[in-house]
Design brief:
10 helices; alpha/beta; Rossmann fold; about 325 residues; globular; 9-stranded mixed beta sheet
């Protein structure tokens, strides 16, 4: 949906490009300044507030619960992000008939963290529990990691600092950009590949298609829904980077000033979330929640004591899926 520009003079006229450049807003920020750097995030990752949380009970399925199947694909290449390779995992619900159609979807950015069987979320186990209990309809899980430049080896332990920077920038290009590129990648390449590989047809109902991610992966998930609300109408955002990495701090204004889109958003952050040169994550997520409320969105905001990790997200994971997939009270 396009909003016509109001050309009448007023205090809300946009900043001109010359001023934007004069202030240096078109350049990379410094690596360090005023005794701080973006490595300050480590204090939040290691904060004791994370200890308050553990994976939700559904992450520990009872012995009789049927377990889904995981397909693993290595070094997958795509056209949207040339000269990169990435790993993908596909979760297939237990007892899902072959050639099923109209199957729900949850897509995870930084998928390896969500899939980790001993990690803070243990998404496959939670899906097993919810499917077995009949609390949600069968959903495919698509776990994908950012592309790795083909010039880098698969073993990250062998990377130099420069190579780590290359990998981090590729992740940021995919997740932090506010452009529709990553959503196009999902719709035009990844999800068709998933359907071809599994023989299963995903639902076209956007209310049964969830984009999920943490940190930069969270804003990437929101961006997919923002540009394609008719394809992804559910967002699960954990410690989202609605900060100025690549302009994500502008989303609250966009949410407030754009006709409301038909999407539902679950936000999670905590009082000990990150604070770096890019911005203040607790404040950014509060501001985003306030904007969603102001614009009349269906949203839920869980603000705890944790830091920039998935520990609180894991404790909430089953409940967040129930809420995102519930039928609206209207």
């Amino acid at each position: 949906m396009t909003v016509e520009d109001d050309l009448r003079p007023g205090y809300a006229s946009p900043m001109d490009i010359e001023t934007y450049a004069m202030l240096g807003l078109n350049r990379h920020g410094p690596r360090a300044v005023n005794g701080h750097s973006n490595l300050d995030v480590q204090a939040s990752i290691n904060h004791e507030g994370n200890a308050a949380y553990s994976p939700c009970p559904e992450a520990h399925p009872a012995g009789h619960v049927p377990r889904g199947k995981i397909l693993s694909i290595r070094d997958w290449q795509c056209e949207q992000y040339p000269n990169t390779v990435r790993r993908i995992w596909i979760y297939l619900p237990a007892d899902l008939p072959q050639a099923s159609s109209d199957v729900g979807l949850i897509q995870f950015n930084d998928g390896h963290i969500y899939l980790d069987r001993e990690g803070p979320v243990r998404a496959a186990a939670v899906l097993d529990s919810l499917h077995a209990a009949g609390e949600i309809a069968p959903m495919l899980g698509v776990f994908v990691i950012p592309g790795r430049p083909v010039t880098l080896t698969a073993e990250a332990d062998d990377w130099t600092e420069t190579e780590w920077d290359e990998a981090a920038e590729q992740r940021s290009i995919e997740y932090d950009s506010l452009r529709p590129d990553y959503g196009q990648f999902l719709l035009q390449e990844l999800l068709p590949f998933v359907e071809e590989t599994t023989g299963i047809r995903l639902t076209e109902d956007p209310t049964r298609r969830i984009c999920c991610g943490a940190s930069s992966g969270a804003i990437g998930a929101f961006t997919c829904a923002w540009h394609f609300p008719d394809r992804f109408a559910r967002v699960l955002s954990h410690v989202g980077s609605f900060t100025n990495i690549k302009g994500g701090h502008n989303y609250p204004w966009l949410v407030r000033s754009t006709p409301r889109k038909d999407i539902r958003v679950f936000l999670q952050s905590g009082e000990n979330d990150a604070a770096t040169l890019f911005g203040d994550w607790p404040l950014a997520n509060r501001t985003m929640a306030n904007a969603l409320d102001y614009a009349g969105y269906e949203y839920r905001f869980e603000f705890g004591t944790g830091g920039h990790t998935l520990t609180h997200a894991g404790a909430l994971f089953a409940d967040s899926l129930r809420w995102l997939l519930s039928v609206p009270d209207r």
